[in-house]
Design goal:
Elements lengths: L2 H44 L84
């Protein structure tokens, strides 16, 4: 075989190999881009817990430190001074068909019997509503 023919065959073989390697390289680059995106997504998910996402605390892994206690606002619970109260007014007596007195027979707290004259027999709210 002549030197020129052998060089031509080697050139074709090398050209085919270069084309195949370029194709493989392009495939690997695409796969690399997909894998980098997946790693970034998993990294974001890995760092999520109930404190920095909408996940419930029950999905936190074990041994996750408890949330720090919330600091209070400094206000007392309930209606604040100066705030107008909201309550349901009693119906006028002319609209009332029947009044049924409801008095407990025993104390809710200790279970002691209550008499009709016992001051503790007032409703729990103390405002005339049970």
């Amino acid at each position: 075989m002549s030197k020129r023919k052998r060089l031509g065959q080697e050139f074709r073989a090398l050209t085919e190999e270069v084309a195949r390697l370029r194709w493989d390289n392009a495939q690997l680059r695409e796969e690399n881009i997909r894998l980098k995106a997946r790693v970034a997504e998993l990294g974001e998910r890995w760092g999520q817990n109930s404190q920095n996402s909408s996940k419930p605390p029950s999905t936190d892994p074990p041994l996750t430190p408890d949330r720090p206690p919330r600091s209070g606002s400094g206000k007392n619970p309930g209606g604040q001074p100066g705030h107008p109260g909201h309550k349901r007014e009693l119906a006028p007596p002319e609209r009332v068909k029947e009044t049924i007195p409801l008095k407990p027979v025993q104390c809710r707290g200790c279970g002691a019997a209550l008499s009709d004259e016992d001051p503790r027999s007032l409703p729990a709210s103390g405002n005339g509503h049970p």
